[in-house]
Write a structure and sequence with these properties.
Two copies of one chain form a homodimer.
Chain A (H helix, E strand, L loop, with lengths): L1 H16 L7 H12 L5 H12 L4 H25 L4 E2 L2 E2 L1 H5 L1 H17 L6 H30 L5 H26 L4 H28 L11 H4 L5 H9 L2 H11 L6 H13 L2 H22 L4 H15 L4
Antiparallel strand pairs in A: 1-2
Family (chains A, B): Belongs to the FPP/GGPP synthase family.
InterPro entries (chains A, B): Isoprenoid_synthase_dom_sf (IPR008949), Polyprenyl_synt (IPR000092), Polyprenyl_synt_CS (IPR033749)
Keywords (chains A, B): Magnesium, Metal-binding, Transferase
Chain lengths: 323, 323
């Protein structure tokens, strides 16, 4: 992905340039630690892409792009505490290295620093971006809480699930494109269109995550195969299987999802039901559907097709991860 | 304190009016819970006072005043997790009731909601206030980390201590007055003067907190008498005592502060050293000094004295708490 490499280099340089040098180091070093370990840095890239689509100035967009990356990493630090996750991007998580207190506080500071990275924008634009940013943050917290609620909630509907992943993933990629577009001076309408593109690509991406957990080549991700099944997670696969299972399959599903066990028979049995109820195909079609909705918003932007090419490439990249 | 009652009623009404009604309730109820239990709500009152001093419109200042209160409560939720505090304002803390995860997340959401409560301001003013707000937040995180560092740091200097309490307490009261003033349309210079008044009153208040822990009537606060001594906290009393103790007193201080014990002899002995080294008087003079510096900034504001009266009353109220 040549254009991704190009953007990734720009973001990496900005991350270096804006390394935190403030004191106390016990607060700022963990922030530098998680930011420097990168990951794919897709969200800041989305800001830059949204900006470039409307011929914006990259210089003006780069700090807001980092703000989005800081925000994303703030959520990761706090989520990892909540999930008691020991590892992130093949490195020990911050609370594992420094304790929960440092994790909480450096996450808080990273969120506040994210806000500060919009401060070079002129007041009108600053306010527009901050409003989107805060709204996105609030919705993400709601999505995170809903995700937690699902664990103990007996029945989770399909709509509730889609809402949850929209809040947890869709709105941040949406807002990233939108903020980039607004910084370039795009109209509210165009910014809204690229927002919706980002939202549906984000939803599709998150559904793909559920799919790949079971049907993907996990080695590529460094994740445990079918971890969601072991954890009794109410993924889209599980929810659709409940809907389409016959009586026998239903009681088998309920049996396995009523206990936590490392028994590999559980994964084997659940996967078989997933295939028999054809939820694997259904989920792939759902991903395709959201991809197409996303593309349809992109189509409506009145710009030459070749300018939109990177967006289509990005969608393909996100949704074809090895499947 | 008649004028305080007046403001407290206004803030209480605003808190009621802006109760969070969003979903999921598992996220928003804890936020309402901590906000509704109030405390003295001095910081939002400072916003309103700063606003009124420069003849601002109360309606315009009330949501930013709540933003400051939300921010303060966000820090309390997260601090209580870090301190493993079971009780706050005579009620169980949020993490005690709902677990650490809800505490982290509802704190995060409260911080983000705080930002949103500035959104009624016009862009120029919005940006001014948000910049102050973010800077204050960042400094508070630094102060909190420094406070934590002091626990294990062998030597804490007097300056380090003053910097820490300035970050943890001074800047928030300072920013509260300043934001209120700016919303009223005060000049940058006047806003800076009232900022510095708030900063030094905040410092004096925090030093008074150390003093009252040992020499105050604790029943009034519902706190344990001399809790800081039991906890080996490096308070201003302790730091000054180290400076002024003779050899014998020094070794006795070091003996008691090298162990954690509920032995009441510890408190008795340490208090005696505090009195013998006269740090009680020194600390009261330090409080008076910061009070006077604060007042001197107030004096410089070119407004009739009667307009400044509530500020002097507030300072007296804060610094004469039963002592």
């Amino acid at each position: 992905m040549e254009f991704l490499d190009h953007y990734q280099k720009i973001v990496a340089e900005a991350v270096d340039k804006y390394t935190f040098t403030e004191k106390p180091s016990e607060l700022y070093e963990p922030m530098n630690y998680i930011i420097s370990h990168g990951g794919k840095r897709l969200r800041p890239i989305m800001v830059l892409m949204g900006n470039e689509l409307f011929d914006g100035d990259m210089e003006k967009a780069i700090k807001p792009a980092l703000a989005i990356e800081f925000f994303h990493n703030f959520t990761l630090i706090h989520d990892d505490i909540m999930d008691e996750a020991p590892i992130r991007r093949n490195k020990p998580t911050i609370h594992t290295l420094h304790g929960i207190n440092v994790g909480i506080l450096s996450g808080d500071a990273l969120l506040i620093k994210a806000y500060q990275f919009f401060e070079d924008l002129e007041p009108e634009l600053f306010k527009k971006c901050i409003k989107i940013f805060s709204e996105t943050g609030a919705v993400l917290c709601e999505g995170q809480q809903n995700d937690v609620n699902f664990e103990t909630q007996k029945h989770v509907s399909y709509d509730e699930y889609i809402n949850m992943i929209t809040s947890k993933t869709g709105v941040l990629s949406a807002a990233s494109f939108q903020i980039g577009a607004l910084i370039a001076g795009a109209s509210e309408e165009d910014a809204e269109l690229i927002y919706n593109f980002g939202k549906h690509i984000g939803i599709a991406f998150q559904i793909m995550d559920d799919y790949l957990d079971v049907f993907g080549d996990m080695e590529q991700f460094g994740k445990k195969h079918a971890g969601d099944i072991y954890e009794n997670k109410k993924t889209i696969l599980y929810l659709l299987a409940l809907e389409h299972a016959n009586e026998e399959e239903l009681s088998e599903l309920n049996y396995w999802f009523s206990k936590k066990t490392d028994n590999v028979d559980k994964v084997y049995s659940v996967e078989k039901i997933f295939r028999r109820t054809k939820v694997d195909d259904k989920v792939l079609r759902l991903i395709q559907k959201h991809n197409e909705i996303g593309q349809s918003y992109l189509d409506k932007i009145n710009l030459p097709d070749e300018k939109k090419l990177p967006f289509r490439e990005l969608a393909n990249y996100l949704l074809r991860r090895e499947s």
